[in-house]
DNA sequence: TTGATATCATTTGCATACGAATGAATTTGA
DNA sequence: TCAAATTCATTCGTATGCAAATGATATCAA
């Protein structure tokens, strides 16, 4: 085999490599689609709340009063994002805000009675949403998938 | 055991059920976090393009000229979203638009020379991004995870 | 004590993401 | 054929999501 042949093969290999890139098989692309599907299932069951809004209420229900930023870190939202979510929940009377007595930087967030009612009503529905999202998998597959997905975060 | 006891147990069971809801273990919540992590890894490797923009270029590189909506369906974006993405790629000279000669409703999208150069340069980096995203998993786990993730879409 | 750091929150700007409404062009079907 | 339905694209409104800049407060350290 000549040197030219080797060079040609090398070039072809590189080009094949590039032509071979399959977007549909990349983890980021599928992750984005899986997330979209989940959001769509969520919306079909809970029309008046988004997943981030639900997450904020569920976490407040779980831990009680917290500061806005602390809540954000508990539900994986940066300060700018959590502010918008909390503002909208406040506008709807589901949470209420107050100032921290000691640390004047902190903005405390609490569920209102209406917020507590809402989250109590929605949690059983949220279970259905989880179930429907995972419906394409068998019970065993669900366990495997959740274990591996958790490793990716 | 009295009837009151049974009723009490039932009520407690329901409340325990609700108190037991663990947001951090729900597939939607973890999916959102996994997606966030991927986007962050992507941004660390490719600063001047978002994942959706990259997806549009990669798909155009793959299939060649298509209509805007067709491209959207290939990369899982609705019409409103894909318009914004393509507008920004056009503004940067990475794609060009033209009207379909026969079907005057259609807006055709093509890579420019600059767009082709960009995607050719970025595809190897995109492979690194996929690899880093999946780095917490072993090779075997990657195969399992990708198989199950694909079943969810 | 006080100056440097760090934390909490807000604001701005940009980029998805999608429902709903609209308009133009095409296709279908009675 | 022609009215109804469909498709393609655009626009508007709302909601994440994040980087960067800013201001107020709190903490740390020399």
Q: Would you write up a description of this structure?
A:
- 2 copies of one chain form a homodimer.
- In chain A, 67% of the residues lie in helices and 8% in strands.
- The model of chain A has no long low-confidence stretch (mean pLDDT 92).
- Chain A has 153 residues and is mostly helical.
- In chain A, a hairpin with a 7-residue loop joins β2 (95-99) and β3.
- The longest helix of chain A has 21 residues, at 113-133.
- The radius of gyration of chain A is 23 Å and the shape is globular.
- Chain A has 2 domains: 1-45; 51-151, Winged helix-like DNA-binding domain superfamily/Winged helix DNA-binding domain (Arc Repressor Mutant, subunit A, Orthogonal Bundle).
- In chain A, strands 1-3-2 form a 3-stranded antiparallel beta sheet.
- The first copy, chain A, binds a DNA duplex (30 and 30 nucleotides) through residues 36, 39-40, 43, 50-53, 67-70, 77-81, 83-85, 88, 103-107.
CATH architectural designation of the largest domain in chain A:
Orthogonal Bundle
Largest interface, C-beta closer than 8 angstroms, per-chain residues: A-B, 48 and 48 residues
Helix content of chain A: 55-70%
CATH superfamily of the largest domain in chain A: Winged helix-like DNA-binding domain superfamily/Winged helix DNA-binding domain
Number of beta strands of chain A: 3
Given the helix and strand composition of chain A, which structural class is it? mainly alpha
CATH topology of the largest domain in chain A: Arc Repressor Mutant, subunit A
Q: Give the CATH level 1 class of the largest domain in chain A.
A: Mainly Alpha
Individual helix count of chain A: 7
Largest sheet of chain A: 3 strands, antiparallel
N-to-C SSE string of chain A, H for helix and E for strand:
HHHEHHEEHH
The oligomeric state of the chains shown is homodimer
Rounded radius of gyration of chain A (Å) = 23 Å
Number of domains of chain A: 2
Strand content of chain A: 5-15%
* Outline of chain A: globular
Euclidean distance between termini CA atoms of chain A: 49 Å
Major β-sheet strand ordering of chain A: 1-3-2
Mean pLDDT of chain A: 92
């Amino acid at each position: 085999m000549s040197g030219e042949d080797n060079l040609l093969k090398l070039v072809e290999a590189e080009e094949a490599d590039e032509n071979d890139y399959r977007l549909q098989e990349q983890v980021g692309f599928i992750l984005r689609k899986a997330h979209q599907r989940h959001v769509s299932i969520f919306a079909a069951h809970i029309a008046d709340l988004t997943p981030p809004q639900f997450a904020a209420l569920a976490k407040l229900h779980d831990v009680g009063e917290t500061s806005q930023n602390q809540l954000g870190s508990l539900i994986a939202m940066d300060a700018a994002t959590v502010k918008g979510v909390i503002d909208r929940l406040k506008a709807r009377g589901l949470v209420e805000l107050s100032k921290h007595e000691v640390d004047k930087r902190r903005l405390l967030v609490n569920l209102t009675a209406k917020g507590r009612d809402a989250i109590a009503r929605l949690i059983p529905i949220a279970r259905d949403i989880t179930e429907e999202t995972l419906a394409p998998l068998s019970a065993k597959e669900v366990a495997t998938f959740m274990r591996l997905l958790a490793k990716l975060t």
